[in-house]
Amino acid sequence: MIVIIGGGICGLGIGWRLACAGCAVTIFERGAAGQAATWAAAGMLAPYAEVKPGEEQLSRLLIEGHRRWPDFVRDLEAAAGYSVDYRTEGALLVALDQDDAAQLKFKYDFQRSIGLELVWLSGYEARQREPHLARTVTAAVVSSHDHQVDNRKVAQALREAFCRAGGVLREHTDVQAILIEHECVCGVQLANETVAADAVVLAAGAWSRNILGLPSLLRPPVRPVKGQMLAVQMPPEAPLLNHVLLTPDAYLVPRTDGRLLIGATVEEMGFDTQLTAGGVFELLRGAWAALPGVYDLPIVEMWTGLRPGSRDGAPILGRTGVQGLIMATGHFRNGILLAPLTAQTISQLILTGTTDDIIAPFGLARFRDER
User: Which of 26, 47, 205, 313 could cross-link to 308 by cystine, CB 3.0-4.6 Å?
Assistant: First the structure.
């Protein structure tokens, strides 16, 4: 029996791959599966646009995660029986003044120096591609390899595929403790039940550190990082925007149904999930500065999510010092992007005992020297 704690996109993905391999798998989710950070995300798959100096190792992981999305989509859509709206128009990064342009050029030069295929545009050329951009857009970079997916549809599809493959999903079921004996995991403790397990995968996102039973040195350094977002409605037949748009103060993600997602704040507020006037105002101001037409669009939804941020901003993947206990948490802003890679590498680890080289640098052990 394999127990997965957490029914977000990573927990569901791992469970699906294991169930397809014939394993007995149960996922325990404290709420509704796929309704926490997974539901709150924007679905951007944009590792190329966001590569920064000093993050080369993480960038390699993100780019590899991106590479695995097409096959993941093909398999998932076949298993679930419907589309998850995987889109490949690319991403557009824009500058709104000369300072923005200088920063964008510095980042662009670095990205080109490591072999990424990006294209520099003038403001005029950017508006040729996206006519509704503001006249104040002075420069832009096109990243044609960056994509997007409807993360909510992915969550629903994974839930369906996991259950069809024989997995057991227990929602609204809080795991109170991980049970460990003689440095081996042996199960989990629920409110009124003990469940035996040969392996336990901790994929509980921002709540991963709060589950009891772990020795202090094995508690993952993961915290909640609040993000506020909203959606406005564009005419589906005449959308204001077709590319994912990254501005200095917001990002905008167009959906096939005409919704335009605007996000997202990054706030150290613990487990607070309240929307604030200031947060929504800053998002709208940042979006309007680059795409003035949002001013007249109706707001159709506003929400918050809690990203699982690790101490160094990178995920925590793989073995721990306890036999049978495996981490798949701390993805921060990259949970959607890394979901196929996480599902494949963690299921491989459980099935074969081997750790993929791509996740080897991202184990829990890297934090030991800091404690």
Answer: 205
The Cα 270–Cα 2 span in angstroms is: 30
> Could you read off the pLDDT of 197-245 as tens digits, one per residue?
999 999 999 999 999 999 998 999 999 999 999 999 999 999 999 999 9
CA 189 from chain centre, in angstroms, equals 28
- Our CA angle for 155, 208, 47, nearest 5°, is 55
Measured from the Cβ of residue 22, the count of other Cβ atoms closer than 10 Å reads: 10
Q: Could you tell me the domains of the chain?
A: 2-82+151-221+311-370 (3.50.50.60), 91-147+223-310 (3.30.9.10)
Q: Which residues on adjacent β-strands are paired with residue 168? A: 26
In percent, the amount of the chain with pLDDT more than 70 equals: 99
* 19 within 8 A of 166, measured Cβ to Cβ: yes
CB 316 within 8 A of CB 364: yes
CA angle 113, 55, 331 (to 5 degrees): 135
How far is CA 367 from each of CA 54, 57, 320, rounded to the nearest angstrom? 18, 16, 12
- pLDDT tens digits along 237-258: 999 999 999 999 999 999 999 9
Low-confidence ranges of the chain (pLDDT < 70): 369-371
